[in-house]
Specification:
Elements (H helix, E strand, L loop, with lengths): L1 E2 L7 E3 L2 E3 L10 E3 L16 E2 L1 H10 L4 H8 E4 L2 E4 L10 E2 L4 E2 L7 H5 L4 H4 L2 H8 L5 E7 L1 H10 L6
Antiparallel strand pairs: 1-2, 2-3, 4-10, 5-7, 6-7, 8-9
Length: about 160
């Protein structure tokens, strides 16, 4: 059984995620990333990194882990996070190509977007975020089972 703290998480029992709320998305949702980069830029936030993700990104960039940490990582709320530029863009966002510079090894937080607990807690949360993300409510259909599996992977209760 996987227990998560906070009001956004449930527990996993017998392979099924039990949520502390009725999933409004039980009929499934549509989402396909169009690669616009809007989720990577323009507003403050944190991109949490696990130690394994830090190692993977450093290796991908051909850097020693400690050098990567010093140049690209800050500590926020007791966790490692990718730095932001002064305009709030993620330090890994490449404006000239509008792409992530570490896309193939991007952190799980980025891989899970928009299926974050904070976005899926309420329909309103989804609708508000979808006004900023043109890939939401279109494209690939995600079943409730797939969404629950993604929620179960979410590494941080405040994501």
């Amino acid at each position: 059984m996987i227990s998560r703290s906070g009001p956004l998480f449930g527990v996993e029992k017998g392979g099924a995620l039990e949520l502390p709320y009725e999933p409004w998305w039980q009929e499934g949702l549509f989402f396909s990333c169009i690669g616009c980069g809007r989720c990577c830029r323009g507003e403050p936030g944190s991109v949490w990194l696990s130690p394994g993700e830090l190692e993977a990104v450093a290796e991908y960039l051909g850097m020693e882990s400690e050098a990567f940490r010093k140049g690209f990582v800050v500590e926020r709320r007791g966790r490692m996070s990718l730095r932001e530029r002064p305009n709030w863009d993620c330090v890994m966002y490449q404006g000239e190509s509008a792409r992530c510079g570490i896309y193939s090894v991007r952190p799980l937080q980025c891989r899970l977007f928009p299926f974050w607990p904070s976005i899926l807690r309420t329909r309103r949360g989804w609708v508000e975020r979808s006004s900023e993300c043109p890939g939401m409510d279109r494209g690939r259909f995600w079943s409730a089972e797939e969404i629950a599996a993604l929620l179960a992977k979410s590494p941080f209760p405040d994501l």
